[in-house]
């Protein structure tokens, strides 16, 4: 049942749209990001697995490192086309050619504001430079993509002049960049339709997100006839970034019914890899890949979702399709259906009266602004139901850490696990990391630790503040088990929260 989603866009249905990923070029232009060759190669291999058609690997002339990365990716035997960026300069094009790329993306400013204030050339000179660059690329028998930079602020007649000239010079595909993200969706539709009426080669679009319209503008460009869109993982890129790959590809796939080569089940894994390498966190509410994209807390929603997920999810896009998990979160807005289900999943069956008391307890904790962890839920339930929650499998006996400016942070953990005493030590980037790794070491044969989230908050002010740590550990089935602990010692709070969630995990396994 697709409701009204195809209304007026039937012409895109089943049309193949090529996905051009520029995470390693425009994405890396995000202020503060620099990826090394190994990271770029790993991302390139992941993007190949994801099914991207063209990958812009970098700007070869810009640094030695970029040249090496582009070369390594071009020679990695990937199935996608590897593209390198070049100004309309032979030196830049030569640098790309030497790396062995399949495609060269050459660009020049065409808007008056950029032409006058950045390259200081007349319109005629820019046109000549563009044609010369395209001819030079084609002399090397390499696919050529030409971008009229700042196309969306360029005089239309001149823009058409330049696109027709590069087409005449043998260019394979033209790109229409909305370099500073100023288009509205309907203006983008009209512009691409008009360009499409004037050229006979494929059209690609590159939209920036200054007004949050990058994905909408890319989709309108496709509606108007563009056959390729430029995107980045997690929407990275200059300023507010570029159109996000996941949002663009999933909209094309699920809303329009268009065809892309994207293997959507790898979307989440790719987003997480790029998050890890770049250090730019994915916001919780980001569509598709955000932690909350398929999470439900409100009672009315969770009740519906537990009955049938389509009630409060798009339905045409499920978490499974994109490698995500659906989560039911307990908190201020939770209702009895969700709380009952969460307890039943752990084998806890309260009476209606007990359930009401558990709900009251949860709501009063949540009203104080606290998150409800699994550990809170089970503690409340065992108190209300008067049943001990069972013996913990892991009992911490000793924890010691050594840290300082000249010593590597090291932790030693001693614990009794299912009646046998174990001791382990490990090092880390800080004392908390070292302690968590030492726990990982002792627990190794019983469970795999996959920490999904980790939050530290100071409860009071001052250097003697209580640190509150909330930890979420993912089990083998993708279920996240959360627990919280507070202590004046941040390492003790972290280890305690971790061991509490592991004990819940082990109880549910036995
Ligand atoms: C919208 C975009 O994303 S475009 C891509 C932007 N990406 C980057 O700039 C990242 C990598 N860039 C770099 O490492 C450097 O800017 C380089 C190596 C390319 C050039 O560095 P520099 O020679 O130090 O010049 P600088 O960056 O200060 O200025 C840009 C130069 O390129 C020229 N230029 C800019 N665009 C073009 C173009 N498309 N074609 C030809 N020349 C161009 C400018 O006129 C200026 O030349 P000038 O030095 O003769 O005045
Ligand atoms: C190089 C070009 C396509 C670019 O990144 C832009 O115009 O934003
Ligand atoms: Mg850009």
Automatic annotation (TrEMBL):
Keywords: Amino-acid biosynthesis, Branched-chain amino acid biosynthesis, Leucine biosynthesis, Transferase
Enzyme Commission number(s) of this protein: 2.3.3.13
GO biological process: coenzyme B biosynthetic process; L-leucine biosynthetic process
CDD domains, per the entry: DRE_TIM_IPMS
Keyword Transport appears in the UniProt entry: no
Leading EC class: transferase
Pathways involved: Amino-acid biosynthesis; L-leucine biosynthesis; L-leucine from 3-methyl-2-oxobutanoate: step 1/4
Domain of life the protein comes from: Archaea
Pyruvate carboxyltransferase domain residues: 17-268
Pfam families: HCS_D2 (PF22617), HMGL-like (PF00682), LeuA_dimer (PF08502)
Keyword Amino-acid biosynthesis in record: yes
UniProt function note: Catalyzes the condensation of the acetyl group of acetyl-CoA with 3-methyl-2-oxobutanoate (2-oxoisovalerate) to form 3-carboxy-3-hydroxy-4-methylpentanoate (2-isopropylmalate).
Protein name in UniProt: Probable 2-isopropylmalate synthase
């Amino acid at each position: 049942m697709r409701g009204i989603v195809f209304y007026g866009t039937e012409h895109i249905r089943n049309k193949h749209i090529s996905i051009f990923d520029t995470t390693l070029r425009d994405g890396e232009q995000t202020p503060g990001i620099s990826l090394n060759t190994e990271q770029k190669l790993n991302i390139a291999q992941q993007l190949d697995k994801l099914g991207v058609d063209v990958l812009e690997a970098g700007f070869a002339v810009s640094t030695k490192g970029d040249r090496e990365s582009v070369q390594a990716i071009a020679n990695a035997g990937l199935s996608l086309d590897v593209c390198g960026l070049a100004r309309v300069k032979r030196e830049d094009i030569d640098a790309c050619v030497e790396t062995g790329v399949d495609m060269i993306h050459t660009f020049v400013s065409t808007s008056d504001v950029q032409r006058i204030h950045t390259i200081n050339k007349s319109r005629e000179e820019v046109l000549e430079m563009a044609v010369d660059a395209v001819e030079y690329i084609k002399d090397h028998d390499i696919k050529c993509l030409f971008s009229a930079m700042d196309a969306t602020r360029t005089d239309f007649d001149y823009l058409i002049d330049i696109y027709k000239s590069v087409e005449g010079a043998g260019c394979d595909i033209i790109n229409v960049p909305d370099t500073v993200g100023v288009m509205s969706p309907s203006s983008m539709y009209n512009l691409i339709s008009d360009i499409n009426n004037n050229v006979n080669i494929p059209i690609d679009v590159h939209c920036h997100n200054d007004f949050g319209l990058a994905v909408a503008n890319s989709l309108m460009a496709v509606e108007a006839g563009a056959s390729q869109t430029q995107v980045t993982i997690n929407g990275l890129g200059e300023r507010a970034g570029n159109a996000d790959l996941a949002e663009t590809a999933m909209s094309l796939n699920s809303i329009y019914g268009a065809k892309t080569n994207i293997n959507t089940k790898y979307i989440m894994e790719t987003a997480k890899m790029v998050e890890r390498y770049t250090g730019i966190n994915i916001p919780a509410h980001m569509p598709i890949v955000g932690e909350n994209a398929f999470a439900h807390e409100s009672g009315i929603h969770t009740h519906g979702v537990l009955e049938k997920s389509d009630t409060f999810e798009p339905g045409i896009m499920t978490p499974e399709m994109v490698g995500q998990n659906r989560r039911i979160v307990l908190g201020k807005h939770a209702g009895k259906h969700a709380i009952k289900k969460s307890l039943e999943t752990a084998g806890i069956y309260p009476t209606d009266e007990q359930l009401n008391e558990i709900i009251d307890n949860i709501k009063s904790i949540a009203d104080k602004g606290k998150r409800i962890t699994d550990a809170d839920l089970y503690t409340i339930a065992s108190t209300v139901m008067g049943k001990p929650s069972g013996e913990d499998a892991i009992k911490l006996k000793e924890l010691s850490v050594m840290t300082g400016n000249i010593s590597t942070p090291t932790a030693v953990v001693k614990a009794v696990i299912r009646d046998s005493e174990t001791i382990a030590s490990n090092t880390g980037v800080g004392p908390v990391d070292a302690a968590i790794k030492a726990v990982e070491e002792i627990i190794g044969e019983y469970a795999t630790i996959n920490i999904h989230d980790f939050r530290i908050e100071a409860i009071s002010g001052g250097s003697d503040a209580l640190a509150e740590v909330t930890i979420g550990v993912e089990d083998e089935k993708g279920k996240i088990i959360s627990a919280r602990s507070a202590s004046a010692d941040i390492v003790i709070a972290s280890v305690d929260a971790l061991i509490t969630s592991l004990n819940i995990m082990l109880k549910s396994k036995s």
